[in-house]
Structure formats: structure tokens, C-alpha cells
Amino acid sequence: MTTESGFTDIKRGNWVDRRVPAAIRPYCRLARVDRPIGIPLLLLPCWWGLALSAPAGGWPSLRLLVLFALGAFVMRGAGCTVNDIVDRDIDRRVTRTAGRPIASGAISVPQALLFLALQLVLGLAILLQLGSLAIWLGAASLVLVAAYPFMKRFTYWPQAFLGLTFNWGALLAPAAALGRVPPAALTLYAAGIAWTLVYDTIYAHQDKEDDLLIGVRSTALKFGAASRRWLILFAGLMLVFLALTFVIAGLGLWAWISLALVALHLAWQIGAVDVASPADCLAKFHANRWLGLILFFGILLARRFA
Q1: In the prediction, which pLDDT does 1 show?
Q2: What percentage of residues in the chain have a pLDDT greater than 70?
Q3: Per-residue H/E/C for the chain
Q4: Which of 56, 161, 189, 202 lies at a C-alpha separation of 20 to 30 Å from 152?
């Protein structure tokens, strides 16, 4: 099975085990609230878009920053629920995921569907606060959320499809803030897709041996020993699209400083990652929250001091 026998990303004894009532714990694990890394990875492209949409010399709307944070929390959980419903048979056969609530039998599929419905209602309540264009874009994103779990069955590029899904907020946030999607938001979205191809290819190396055995696909399997060269390509594309974004939006010094720091971060994680070690792949994957924050603060300060 996996290179490090028994490796799992489900850690026991965390705050969910210590503080959450036993009946609710499986639902917290299903929504991954005990492993919140997916929340910033979903949220930060939204915050990039809000920072990009801030008026020159001003700040983005605090109300929208909070609404998108709540939305990322709810919809990341909904996405995990959809993924685990669809992948329950696969998860049972993978060391890292066999303990997930549906795969292990802690939650039944009907219970998971009810939980999903609750999350979608909460997500809709948040979406309705964002304006008509944002509402339509948010509704369109559900097609991506629903389709993503099936991609690994048909293509070696599910990571690209995740990029389309997870970075949708780079379009949605300007729509909420401005009532339109400016050209710079499109290049920002493209940069986010390239970023996802970096971090999720690294993440996929955790499961490559199991994926081969059960017949699902990933960029980690497609690239194999050439993965580092592909990661360099995706990192380069991210930097190019970010530079285009900054030029189109007329961003100044702070944005370019953040671009240099993002480049250094990408060079570190791609150069240092050990793709044969699931634990190291997971650690490098987690480090991307800092990359996303560096970029957010760079755009934020560039707009504030324009």
C-alpha cells in the first residue's frame, strides 16, 4: 500500500475528540473541521479577489471578507461530504482514507445526504447576501463541486478540475464586490488553477501506489518521476499569470514584493519535497496556506497604498 505503512491524515486525540460530543464527531470529521487546511485553500482565492477589487487607497469590505470566510467553511465541508459519498468504496481500499466516516461506517449514506442538504442550505443563505451576478456564479460552481469527485475515474487531470473548482472565488469575489468580473480577475483565476496543480499534485503523491492498485488516476501517476519538472512548469505559469494580473490591475510595489516571496516559496516546496514520503507531501501541501496569505497581503497593501 502506501510507502509509509499505515500512514493516515486522520489524527486522533485532536480537539474534535476532546471537546465535541461523540454523536457529532463523525460529522465534524466528514466536513474535515479537524483538518481545516482546505478552508484557507478555498478561501484565499476569494480574499485575493476581494483585495484586488478594493478601491485605490482603501480596504476591501469587511462584511464580504467575513461572508466569504463563512462560505468557505460551509462549502468546503459540503465538498468533502460530496467527495466522500462518491468515493466511499475507493476510500475503504486506501490506507490514508479508510478511516473516513462514510468509508468506515460511522455515518450512513442517507445520514451524509441529510448533512449535505443542511450545508447547502447554509451556503445558499450566505450566497444570497452577495448580489445577483455573484449568486449566478455561485450557483454555477455547484456543477464543478458535483463533478469533481468523478474526474479521477476518467482523466489523469483531476487536479486541474480541482483548480477550476477551488479557485472559483477569484471570480465570485469581484462579482460580489463590484457587480462585474474585471479582466484582472480572470488572470488571477488562471494563476490559482496553476497553484492548485502544484499543491494537489504534491498531495496526490501520498496515494499513488493505492491509486495504481484500484485504478484511479492523478497527475502524480501521469507525471511519475518527471513530477518535479511539471511542478516547475505549473509554478512558472502561476507566476506569469500573477504578473499579468498585477500589470492589468496597475498594482504597485507591495504586489511585486509578494510575487517574489511567492516565487521563493514555490522554489522551496518544489525543491525540498520528497514525493516518496506521504508525510512530507502532506507537510508541503499544508505549507501552501502561507503562500496564499503572502499573496493576499501583497495585493491588499498594493491597493491600500496605491
Answers
A1: 35
A2: 96
A3: CCCCCCCCCCCCCCHHHHHCCCCCHHHHHHCCCCCCCHHHHHHHHHHHHHHHHCCCCCCCCHHHHHHHHHHHHHHHHHHHHHHHHHCHHHHCCCCCCCCCHHHHCCCCHHHHHHHHHHHHHHHHHHHCCCCHHHHHHHHHHHHHHHHHHHHHHCCCCHHHHHHHHHCCHHHHHHHHHHCCCCHHHHHHHHHHHHHHHHHHHHHHCCCHHHHHHHCCCCHHHHHHHHHHHHHHHHHHHHHHHHHHHHHHHCCCHHHHHHHHHHHHHHHHHHHHCCCCCHHHHHHHHHCHHHHHHHHHHHHHHHHHCC
A4: 189
More confident of the two residues 12 and 273: 273
What residue segments make up the domains of the chain, in order of their start?
21-304
List C-alpha distances in Å: 302 to 78, 121, 246. Answer: 34, 36, 9
Is residue 209 over pLDDT 90?
A: no
Domain 21-304, CATH: 1.10.357.140
**pLDDT at position 2:** 38
Q: What are phi and psi of 35, to 5 degrees?
A: -135, 80
Higher pLDDT, 35 or 5: 35
| Mean per-residue pLDDT over the chain, rounded | 93
Least trusted range by pLDDT, from 15-29, 66-80, 114-128, 243-257: 15-29
Instruction: Give the residue among 298, 302, 164, 156 at the shortest CA–CA distance from 239.
Output: 298
Give the mean model confidence (pLDDT) for residues 175-196.
98
Among residues 282, 268, 299, which one has the least CA distance to residue 45?
Answer: 299
With 0-12 CB in 10 A as exposed, 13-18 as middle and 19+ as buried, what is 55? exposed
